[in-house]
């Protein structure tokens, strides 16, 4: 079902004490405030069980930042869908541009990961988005189309409904440069229409599409107010409770 979501991708930040502190702060915030969106976090995988123990009532969704394309076995360093399921994780981010850039991840890998996640009842947050070069040369719509089709269009209608998509233009990640609300809206509408063409409008209207890339307390509200933007995947500004809570309030 299409819902409003603010998700924090902590990336490779925070030691265990700092992570625990931020998890506590978020829980306190959730207990004391009514939020008009779901609140999810993706801490480093080392801390996922700690988050699950703390959020006893599933107040906050707990996501891995990545997940293996293999089911089990000799894959040193990897975490499987089955393992995430066994700790009752909510889901996993899949295909983040940093995984693509530094770890050679492709949309074919993403396709396998998304399927494995869905098979275990995990929510995949599938990330796509163009580079600066691709945008400058006017290829952004085509790039996002190819990414979306390769990674997701082998899914059934029932499966794709459960996927959350995060459009994250690479040039806006960690750079302080945000896509304008209009630029983001254009791509979000594009993604939704691709899904509508393949699966029908009813299905497309059920899918949450998040924007990621330098979302801050100052710009969250305007971004979230766009028709096809259902929330944000937040990096740097998810690391401080004050900033993250103000972004959540972008939905108030
Ligand atoms: O990559 C991101 C979230 O996954 C966005 O990061 P920033 O919010 O730091 O730009």
Give a written overview of the molecule.
Pathway: Carbohydrate biosynthesis; gluconeogenesis; Carbohydrate degradation; glycolysis; D-glyceraldehyde 3-phosphate from glycerone phosphate: step 1/1. Pfam families: TIM. InterPro entries: Aldolase_TIM (IPR013785), TIM_sf (IPR035990), TrioseP_Isoase_bac/euk (IPR022896), Triosephosphate_isomerase (IPR000652), Triosephosphate_isomerase_AS (IPR020861). By secondary structure, the chain is of the alpha/beta class. It has one domain: Aldolase class I (TIM Barrel, Alpha-Beta Barrel), CATH 3.20.20. It has 12 helices and 8 strands. It has an 8-stranded parallel barrel with strand order 1-2-3-4-5-6-7-8, surrounded by 6 helices. Strand 7, helix 11 and strand 8 form a beta-alpha-beta unit. It is globular. The two termini are 20 Å apart. Bound molecules: 1,3-dihydroxyacetonephosphate. 1,3-dihydroxyacetonephosphate (13P) binds next to strand 8.
């Amino acid at each position: 079902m299409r819902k409003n979501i603010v998700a924090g991708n902590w990336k490779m930040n925070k030691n265990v004490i700092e992570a625990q502190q931020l998890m506590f702060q978020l829980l306190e915030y959730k207990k004391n405030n009514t939020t008009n969106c779901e609140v999810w976090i993706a801490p480093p995988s080392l801390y996922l069980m700690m988050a699950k123990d703390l959020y006893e009532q599933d107040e906050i969704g707990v996501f891995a930042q990545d997940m293996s394309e293999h089911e089990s076995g000799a894959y040193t360093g990897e975490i499987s869908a089955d393992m995430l399921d066994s700790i009752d994780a909510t889901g996993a981010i899949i295909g983040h541009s940093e995984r693509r850039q530094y770890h050679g991840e492709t949309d074919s890998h993403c396709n396998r990961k998304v399927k494995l996640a869905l098979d275990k009842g995990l929510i995949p947050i599938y990330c796509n988005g163009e580079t600066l070069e691709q945008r400058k040369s006017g290829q952004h719509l085509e790039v996002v189309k190819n990414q979306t089709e390769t990674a997701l269009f082998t899914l059934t209608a029932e499966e794709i409904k459960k996927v959350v998509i995060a459009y994250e233009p690479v040039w806006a990640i960690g750079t302080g440069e945000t896509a304008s609300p209009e630029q983001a809206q254009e791509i979000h509408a594009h993604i939704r229409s691709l899904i509508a063409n393949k699966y029908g409008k009813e299905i497309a209207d059920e899918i949450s599409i998040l924007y990621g890339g330098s979302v801050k307390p100052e710009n969250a509200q305007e971004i979230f107010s766009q028709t096809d933007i259902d929330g944000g995947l937040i990096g740097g500004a998810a690391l401080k409770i004050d900033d993250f809570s103000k972004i959540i309030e972008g939905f108030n």
